[in-house]
Specification:
Distance between the termini: 107 Å
Bound molecules: zinc ion
Number of domains: 1
Structural class: alpha+beta
Order of helices and strands: HEEEEHEEEEEEHHEEHEEHEEEH
Largest sheet: 10 strands, mixed
Radius of gyration: 30 Å
Length: 431
């Protein structure tokens, strides 16, 4: 073998290769009509339509005051206005709904329409954004895992991440905080006070307003046009009678059983979907994530075109889920909307309906990435398996407050016993 010459590699390409079939004249590019159906369908399917929401005017990482050019810009608390901390000039960004026509055309939606800030996250896109400071030449880094602005600590220039990099951190829109921190702290305190009696001592003692933080949570706001088919059986009672007597008395029902089919066509406008995998982990033994969903809704119609200055002074959580990953959850949600729509049409079935088959078809959907404002107070309760993360959340627009408070189990038990004892006592007294 050692002195045998290896055979030359087969000429896989090039004229004369046995593997090549020369193209028939004029047949390139490939005519999709000649391909098998699944491949043809894929080739002919339209590309997802994109809505470009990029803010070209904010491209260099510095948001300048339109009047004086300073970069120290913040949201004016409680409003949608931005304010220049240097010259006190105030202005407001455009609402996305109007700027990009997001309120219209839900009835005509086809395919998947994705706004540019809701595009797929690429695995190698870094969370760290580095800017070269134009003031002093230093490098300023923003870690988009939890912040969208940073100040150069040498010359105080402020940088914000406005460019729609593919790391999931820059959405299309932001719904600014309207509830101020003082107000949020008061609401959280009230929430805790109401549950004083049973709350864990350590939890009450450690409550500090400084630990209440404003966080922008990542959501996808979805419009969709869909239809659903639901099939089942419904029963209508025709007769009710008893047989036997005394202990053996039994009640019988006669019923007509109907095969029911329902078809609904419907649209949804601004359905919010959590787009952070951690937050949508509803493992109630380890965290209390579903709390955020109890402080919905948000007035997403008023969301403003992305401008990192709105996040100055707030923390943020990066989106890590793409449209494709959220699609099955959208189907689930649409199906439950369809079920509730159908519900009112089956009232006549007085003995109930059993649904056996259901399916939803999404004709079109439109996805916009948005940061929603939430005030959070969190408390980690030590315990087995890493303990439990409790938190209280305040909707940054409406003030709606919900949370989980760690409970002193023995107090609850004692209370239950006490109530029981009193009832027993009253019962005895009456007798
Ligand atoms: Zn200014
Ligand atoms: Zn600088």
């Amino acid at each position: 073998m050692s002195n045998a010459t290896p055979p030359p590699p087969p000429p896989y390409t090039g004229p004369g290769s046995p593997h090549d079939v020369p193209p028939a004249p004029g047949s390139f590019p490939i005519d999709p009509e000649t391909l098998p159906k699944p491949i043809r369908d894929e080739l002919l399917a339209p590309d997802p339509v994109a809505i470009d929401t990029a803010s070209a005017e904010l491209k260099d990482g510095q948001n300048h005051c339109p009047k004086c050019g300073a970069t120290d810009i913040k949201q004016r608390p409680g409003t949608d206005q931005l304010i220049c901390l240097y010259c006190r000039n105030e202005w407001t960004a455009a609402r996305v709904e109007e700027a990009f026509g997001l309120g219209e055309g839900i009835d005509d939606l086809e395919g998947t329409v994705v706004a540019s800030g809701a595009g797929d996250i690429s695995a190698d896109a870094s969370s760290l954004m580095t800017f070269k400071c134009t003031g002093c030449g230093a490098e300023v880094t923003v870690n988009t895992e939890n912040a969208m602005t940073a100040r150069c600590h040498w010359c105080r220039h402020v940088f914000g991440v406005n460019e729609q990099i593919a790391n999931g951190a820059v959405p299309d829109a932001v719904l600014p905080f309207h509830i101020k921190k003082d107000d949020a702290v008061a609401r959280i305190r009230q929430f805790v006070d109401k549950r004083q009696m049973f709350a864990l001592k350590a939890f009450k003692e450690q409550f500090t307003p400084e630990n209440v933080v404003g966080v922008y949570m990542p959501y996808m706001i979805v419009d969709s046009k869909a239809s659903a088919d639901i099939v089942g059986e419904g029963e209508i009672e025709t007769r009710c009678y008893t047989k036997g007597s005394g202990d053996k008395k039994k009640t019988y029902y006669d019923a007509d059983i109907y095969q029911i089919e329902r078809h609904v066509d419907f649209t949804v406008d601004d359905l919010p979907m959590e787009s952070s995998a951690n937050r949508s982990d509803f493992n109630t033994r380890a965290n209390t994530n579903n709390i955020i969903n109890t402080i919905l809704p948000f007035d997403t119609k008023n969301a403003i075109k992305w401008n990192a200055s709105y996040l100055s002074g707030f923390s943020s959580e990066k989106r890590d889920l793409d449209v494709a990953q959220l699609m099955p959850r959208l189907e689930d949600q649409l199906l439950s909307i369809a079920r509730s729509q159908v519900h009112s049409s089956v009232n006549a079935y007085d003995r109930g309906v059993r649904w056996e088959e259901e399916g939803v078809e999404i004709h079109g959907s439109r996805w916009v990435a948005m940061y929603l404002p939430v005030w959070l107070y969190s408390y980690h309760q030590p315990g087995s398996n890493g303990g439990m993360l409790h938190y209280i959340a305040v909707n940054g627009r409406t003030g709606e407050t919900m949370g989980s408070v760690p409970i002193q189990q023995w107090k609850l038990l004692l209370a239950a016993l006490t109530v029981g004892t009193i009832l027993e006592f009253i019962a005895l007294w009456i007798l």
